[in-house]
Amino acid sequence: MVENIKYANKYNFAFIDEATKKEIRRKLLKAVAIPGYQVPYSSPEMPIARGWGTGGLHVTLAIIGREDIFKIIDQGSDASVNACNLREFVHQMTNCQTTYDTSEATLIQTRHRITEEELTENQIFVYQVPQPEPLRSVERYEYRTRQMHGEADYAKMWVSLYESYVRSGDIMLGAGYPVKVNKRYIMAPSPIPRWDVPNLNQSKALHLFGAGREKRLYAVPPYTTVEALEFEDVKFHTEDFKGTECYKTGYKKAFLDELYFDDGSKHFIINDSNFLDKLVEKESPKQHENKYIKQLQS
Amino acid sequence: MQSEIIYDEIFDAQEHFRLILDSMARPGKINVIPDLDIRMTAGISKASTLIAFSLLNTDASFCAIGELSNDIEEFITLHTTAKIETLQKADFVFVKGDQSAGFIAELKIGTLPYPEDSATIVVDVLNISIDETADSIQLNLKGPGVKTIETVYVTGLNHAILDAVREQNYEFPLGIDLVLTDLENNMICIPRSNDFTYELAETDNQPYYN
Amino acid sequence: MGYVAVKGGTDAIHNSQQLVEFYRLKDATTPLDIKQIRTQLRMAVDKVMGEGGVYAPEYAAIALKQAEGEVFEAAFILRAFRATLQRKYYSEAINTREMFVRRKISASFREIPGGQILGPTRDYTQRILDTTKAFEDQEAIKKFLTDFKVPVNSDKLAEITTFAKVIDLLKNEGLLKPIDPDEDRTLKDITREAIKFPAPRSARLQMLARAETGGLMALGYASMRGFGSVHPTVGELRYGAVKVKVKDATGRSRYIGKIEVTEAETISAGKSAKKKSAPYYNIGYGLCFGQNDTKVICMGILDTAMRTPDVNSPANDQEFVLYHTEGIESMGFVNHLKLPHYVTFQSELKNIRGAVERSAEKPTEQAIQSPQLQSV
What we know:
The structure holds three protein chains of three kinds. Chain A is an alpha/beta fold. Chain A has helices at about 20-35, 55-65, 80-95, 140-150, 155-170, 275-280, 290-295; strands at about 40, 70-75, 95-100, 105-110, 125-130, 180, 185, 205-210, 215-220, 225-230, 255-260, 265-270. Chain A folds into two domains: about 20-230, Rossmann fold (3-Layer(aba) Sandwich), CATH 3.40.50; about 240-285, no CATH class. Chain A is globular, with a radius of gyration of 20 Å. Chain C folds into three domains: about 1-80, no CATH class; about 95-330, no CATH class; about 340-370, no CATH class. Chain C is globular, with a radius of gyration of 26 Å. The two termini of chain C are about 30 Å apart. Chain C: One of its GO terms (biological process) is organic phosphonate metabolic process.
């Protein structure tokens, strides 16, 4: 009754149809032209669940070409199961070369980390974004947050930061610390740790953000001012790993994961898997430079 | 797409888009669109034609103004299925560099909640170069995507267009984005976030524009 | 180390995929035939098509089989498949007045033009577990079909044409709310552009048509029960087959096939905005693929509710209703919590530990409950 030929699967290069690619491309140009502003897009369903990187995939697949060398990390690791799954998908759909080496990649997709190794002018960095709206916690309605962005009316956001300080003695925001881009838009940098936030500022690479479920795209062009929100007397700071170091390399100036071993002992290890590999191999990858890292004892 | 055109809708479009994206992300950076042997229509440069092929389809609208604009519109809609729109509603506007600047004020610039609902202008000029040439305008670009300051020299561009663009982009995020192409397939972009200035060459031969 | 770890992750995924197949097949029972699923699990297929947003019963059946009967998952698979299809045409608006009616009821009048036709419905079946279904065989099915056909009068069946609608009766009497000239009547395509708020009714109804039945039911029920004010009368609910036509390149209308849909028009009394002007009836509208009474009635309730914004009632709040009844997005995001979050967690942990250190005593309740500002 059902002939197999009827169901033969054939997909376009990079899976997405050309019409959708063009739409995403046009909107990415707008996103770049208005740094930090969230451009709505159609965001068709992907064979990956919503919330699992569809927005990042849309961006990656809309811009990727045959010559690209693709790297993908999840929580800093090339080995995370979801990163493995998406890498396989992108590879199957494009036949592009994939890599774990940060410096070799031309296109890097990430969930919740910027690589420790500095990005270059020849790289595009694509973020998977769960919640693109930095104001959602202070204003639940989209039509109002749009208005607030339009008028650069960020009073509610500042009040919430202040309240957090009064209550807890610090701005209690963890990953996804809100930033101001090009002195204009407040933007969610996606849930990267605070450690990574300064590395968006004046970066050499182009940063593209895709929020699939929420159907928004945005961008931080290279050499763009990106500032973490802070008060004159209550400053933004990165995660404090004082007194700890990577148990494999002894390195202190990187974002560390906290590990618990079977005997209950606690260890720290460099989160960025490729950076760790390189240090273990005695290579010296060039790290991002920012004032927070500079302050640390090596 | 018509068969007489040697154009790969998937890979050429992708490659050209990446160049446009790179130029848009780095205002003033000159990218060269590869010279493809495509059929052309008179009145629009090859690079601008390829940009239209790369970005337009049935979901986008455009218009052409100036000489031969009807032919250009017909040609672009035939090859991209994009909708021809009025100047006031068009997503993309194709125009020659010597066009008088009045049209700029007509273009859509978006709204504060949705500033992206605005036009992108693709302008054909004679020459874009990092070196000064006779009668060239010196463009100094500053802003996101530019490390300190980027300087390019453009000939065949009515400087009044630059004044009008500056005027339109004064109320950022409202505004229009600019793509310039020349006869050698060079391309630069000036997004609305760019804070540019220009200087005219000190010459008596500066062409006269309306 | 990197390579080995990556290999580990990839292997784990592959093994897990193998295990899924194993669990589906481990008892080596007779493979389910797609046709069986299509016909005997009709309601599940209808639900999957509705939420998947593509009318393709055979593909919906395959998705159900692939997902071991998990409707959310099957709808998601179908939706993802749908996204790979090119939209070649927009159909002309289907005309439900020309529906070949299989079921047509009205709660608002005792008799309606063409009569009340119950059609296939479980409404009046006794919900007693029918254990004889366990022993159903081909013979029993054949016998049922033969017996069923005996009293059917084919001449009478051929006479059935089309029926006027109940709301037309009210409309002719001038009882319906007049068209608001200020209403945004643009026709959006939510699959081609992201919804913007406030959304026009076309976008709202499209979102509802693809929404998850359970989600619609929760909000529709809430509105009726007290957290809202829409408690409508079902003016008409019809289920049957309608023709789909597209315009070809020459502008000629072409018939391309039939689809089955359920449609509801719910009636609620509305207050006029102006004082002293007469009251009127609001019609709430619902339409979905296949047979799904619950869904279209809830669509009707929510369609009405969303037209009168009211912050005290979730059902009246466009953004609340439309974002959160979208089953495929909700399911995806809820399940993404299973992904590793150790970087984001570490970032928060540093804050909490810092706050605990600052406080001489035990951590205050507030410090711990400080809201996570960013969803991760």
